[in-house]
Amino acid sequence: MQNSNEGRLLALEGLRGVAAVAVVIFHGLSMFYPIFLYGALSGLGLIQNSRFEDNLYGNPVSVIFSGAFAVAIFFVLSGFVLTVSFFNSGDEKSIMRIAGKRYLRLMIPALSSILVTLFILAIGLDWMKPLVADITGSLWLKNLWQPAEPSLMNALSQGVWGVFFSSVAETSYNPVLWTMKFELLGSLLVFAIALLFGKAKHRWIIYVLLIIATFKTWYLAFIIGMILADLYAHRKYPFFTESKRYGWLTLLLIIGIFLGGYPYYVPNGSVYAVLQLPWLYPLENNSLYLSIAAGLILVSVICLKPLSKFFGSKYISMLGKYSFSIYLVHMAVLFTAGAGVFLWLNPIIGFHWAAALSILTSLIILVPAAYLFERYVDSPAIRISSLFSRWLFDESKTTEKSTKILRKRK
Predict the structure, then answer these.
(1) Continuous H helices in 123-177
(2) Mean local confidence (pLDDT), 306-320
(3) Can you list the pairs that 239-242 forms with residues at least 24 positions away whose Cβ atoms lie under 8 Å?
(4) Is the pLDDT of residue 1 over 90?
(5) Cβ neighbours of residue 105 under 8 Å, at least 6 residues apart?
(6) Where do the H-state alpha helices sit in 144-245?
(7) Angle between the N-to-C axes of helices 339-349 and 128-136, in degrees from 0 to 180, rounded to the nearest 10
(8) Cβ(256)–Cβ(246) below 8 Å
(9) What's the start-to-end Cα distance of the chain, in Å?
(10) For the chain, what is the mean pLDDT?
(11) What is the pLDDT of residues 59-83, one digit of tens each?
């Protein structure tokens, strides 16, 4: 029988999976409704393809499809999941093992997704994307998938180095890889903080200083996740204990949902304009509000039993296993199969139905695509990175020496 803690952490896997699907829908909508992405007051001269499009921008309802908020959830979850076992056990070797495999764990799937795009470009399947961009007026769609010199060496360079260590992440093959630099460096940051200060009595002073230092960056999300892992492991915060504080938890959930709807571009003309403070510039993808929102959602999913039960259910939690694969391959599906369906159906059934069926078709095709990517790329990446970490820390020899010592004692 599954214990309470296992059920709560399983719910976080479901949350990760739902966030991945939200990214897919967000990018699908961005292909056809550019004002949904940038807003009517962006000053970019965008075409409004739906009379409801501008109403959805900067509307808390859009939190359901907010790609930026979904990314904040990924980052907070990483900070939490990567450190919670250390705070539970205090085992420094365990966190060193996780740190040792982190680069390969991310690099192998990221590079593979780039090679998928290179293959699509090589066989000429990218011709549909610019045609869709011309019809929809989506500047976002028009400017993607444009590597200066597509080649195997260029793709390898981007996948091994560029997306992780360049000052500006190189993402011309797979735009969603802009998150990989933050995933790697953010993970290493929380590993280092946990190892250096995780057992210190006054580590909360360090946490406050880290929040101040990162409050205008995406690294704040990792810090929030790590702090929540510490609180969860030590049960110092009443919301992480078995309690009846559903009123406060519901309020936190509502605040998290509201802040999670913070718009992708600028909040002008939306209910979020009041949050546009001079000292928070630049405001695009405001990481402060979205990171706080993601932290509140994480707390709500862990502590509110209806949410925990929903996200921890069999099929929702299963999404977590495929979330990284969904995230990495969905643009390749949207820009080929999705674009093709739209171009085929638009003259027949009209713009909106064609757009809806394009996104639906992409989601259906994404099921086997993500399954194959997880089985043949993501799972092997986990195994390879684990083997590398064991070799790096020479665990096999340590185990062998320990066995010999025990035999001698016997």
Answers:
(1) 128-136, 139-142, 152-157, 163-165
(2) 93
(3) 239/299, 239/303, 240/299, 240/302, 240/303, 242/4
(4) no
(5) 381, 382, 385
(6) 152-157, 163-165, 178-197, 203-214, 219-234
(7) 50
(8) no
(9) 38
(10) 88
(11) 899 899 999 999 999 999 999 999 9
Q: Give me the mean pLDDT over the 141-147 stretch.
A: 87
For residue 243, which amino acid is it? S
Token pair for 315: 């099929």
Q: What is the DSSP letter of 378?
A: I
Q: Would you mind telling me the total number of residues written for the chain in this entry?
A: 410
Tell me, what amino acid is at 252? L
- Which residue matches tokens 């799937």? 109
- In whole angstroms, what is the distance from residue 64 CA to residue 250 CA? 17
Report the alpha-carbon distance of residue 84 to residue 229 in Å, rounded: 5
30: helix, strand or coil: helix
Q: How far is CA 151 from the centre of its chain?
A: 28
* Cis peptide, bond prior to residue 282, ω within 30 of zero: yes
User: What is the C-alpha to C-alpha distance for residues 71 and 20, in angstroms, rounded to an integer?
Assistant: 8
Residue 129 contacts residue 338 (beta carbons within 8 Å) = no
Residue 317 near residue 17, CB atoms below 8 Å: yes
Listed in sequence order, the residues at least 6 apart from 98 whose beta carbon sits closer than 8 Å to its beta carbon are 82, 191, 389
Q: Which amino acid is at 282?
A: P
Three-state SS at 57:
coil
Q: Specify the 3-state DSSP secondary structure of 35.
A: helix
| C-beta of residue 111 within 8 angstroms of C-beta of residue 159 | yes
Tokens of 317: 């939690």
